[in-house]
Design brief:
about 450 residues; alpha+beta; seven-stranded mixed beta sheet; four-stranded antiparallel beta sheet; transmembrane
């Protein structure tokens, strides 16, 4: 097999292998049962009371969690119970506290309730307590609610309340609300319905000192940075397979790149930029009008398509552009898109970061036979990118689980990176690379040829 055929087959081979691997593997372990946020609002209270000989019926349960500047959560729960149970709990404070503590000791998010107080008024059990380390302050005074962040938990969350309200520190507003909750008077409120009985899959919540694009950007960056901070060494295993695959492909490109087919920059550039424009319009339409796909998918497509169009438009007319100029433009476009994406959503910002390796193929192609320094820098960046992607995909993973997860996370991502990157590489390399590099616009000499 010639080097040209080997290089041409690399992209579909990666795509097919990653697809087969994703089908062949399944979830490694089952998730543990969810934990209740309001441990005294539902069945937990009835079960704890029954163990004390009280046949209690919880008719309505509501809780408010107020998060202060130190990250401590202050719980205030009100549970309306039947008359007989209310009388027994009101008459015996020791029994009442024992029942409440037992309900909190089951599968709840509360590990050690502090300053616990209980009372009964108008057939309503009132419970207040504090729990530290519910949230932390991030960039620009933004407060991220760790209690609801799925990356800090091994189990899911169970509402177990007719109403749950979470308030931020005094003077803050909601800068990021989960889709299942509604923003009311500067707080986020959940009320279970038939369509949405719980928290939903996306539970990340944040409060900021002010509203606006800047606050949203800081919130998004804070969430992404928090995930990176949670990364464990085992998660880097997710980047091993794609790094090896990219390394092998880059060796092929470096050694036999001259055998790759030449392209017509105007024709290929036209196809890439027009296809990107169509993707942008389709994503915009799906987000604002048509609802063709899930919002997260539309945001992913939109972010990548915008970045790809910005780089592809320049790559289509790059004959007079140096390798360093191509690298500067590519990085500048990536920063611009990342800043804009940070005001949209966490998914959009992560997509912008994960899209950078794909567009780096353009300056790699521009550096071919022209600038060894740029070629080496981009090559090292591409080899390191899978490990950065591993941290974004799964901050915490054991080595064995990491290898399994890579089959349907970082490996398909690397395949897509190559699939979209190679056309930019061909545009950057240009048709004049088939000749002597020293004759290519006077930009390289035989001594500096790659």
């Amino acid at each position: 097999m010639t080097a040209r055929r080997l290089a041409l087959l690399a992209v579909p081979a990666l795509l097919v292998c990653s697809s087969l691997a994703a089908v062949a593997v399944g979830p490694a372990t089952a998730a543990p049962p969810p934990e209740a946020v309001c441990g005294v609002c539902g069945d937990g209270l009835a079960d704890a009371a029954e163990n004390e000989g009280i046949r209690l019926t919880a008719e309505y349960g509501a809780a408010t969690i107020r998060v202060d500047e130190s990250g401590t959560g202050h719980w205030a729960a009100r549970v309306r119970v039947d008359d007989r149970s209310a009388d027994r709990l009101a008459a015996n404070a020791t029994l009442r506290e024992r029942v409440v503590r037992a309900s909190l000791d089951r599968r709840t998010v509360v590990d050690d309730p502090r300053n616990l107080h209980t009372s009964v008024a108008n057939d309503t059990l009132v419970v207040t307590f504090d729990q530290p380390d519910v949230a932390h302050e991030s960039l620009g005074g933004v407060v991220l609610v760790d209690l609801l962040d799925p990356r800090t938990r091994r189990s899911g969350l169970d509402l177990e309340a007719d109403e749950l309200r979470i308030e931020g520190p005094n003077g803050t507003v909601v800068s990021r609300a989960p889709p299942a909750g509604t923003v009311e008077d500067g707080a986020v409120v959940w009320r279970p319905t038939d369509d949405e009985p719980g928290f939903g899959s996306d539970t990340r919540l944040a409060f900021a000192p002010s509203d606006g694009p800047g606050a949203r950007a800081l919130t998004t960056v804070g969430f992404v940075a928090f995930g990176v901070g949670l990364a464990e060494p085992g998660a880097l295993v997710l980047g091993l397979a794609p790094a090896l695959g990219l390394g092998a492909l880059l060796v092929v490109v470096r050694r036999w790149g001259d055998e790759l087919p030449t392209v017509d920059p105007s024709r290929l550039g036209y196809v890439l930029t027009r296809a990107s424009a169509v993707a942008v319009l389709a994503a915009f339409g799906s987000i604002f009008w048509l609802d063709l796909v899930a919002p997260a998918v539309a945001e992913t497509v939109l972010t990548f398509a915008v970045l790809y169009a910005l780089v592809g438009n320049l790559a289509a007319d790059a004959d007079s552009l140096s390798a360093r100029g191509a690298l500067a433009w590519t990085l500048g476009a990536a920063v611009l898109v990342a800043v804009a994406a940070s005001t949209v959503s966490i998914v959009a910002l992560q997509t912008a970061l994960l899209s950078v390796p794909a567009v780096l193929w353009f300056p790699l192609g521009r550096a071919h036979g022209r600038d060894r320094g740029v070629a080496a820098l981009v090559t090292l960046s591409l080899l390191a990118a899978p490990f950065g992607g591993a941290v974004l995909y799964a901050p915490s993973a054991s080595p064995v689980l990491g290898l399994v997860l890579s089959a349907f996370t970082t490996v398909p991502w690397a395949a897509a990176t190559v699939a979209f990157g190679v056309p930019l590489y061909l545009l950057g390399r240009g048709p004049d690379d088939t000749g002597d590099p020293s004759e290519a616009d006077g930009r390289a000499s035989p001594a500096s040829a790659d």
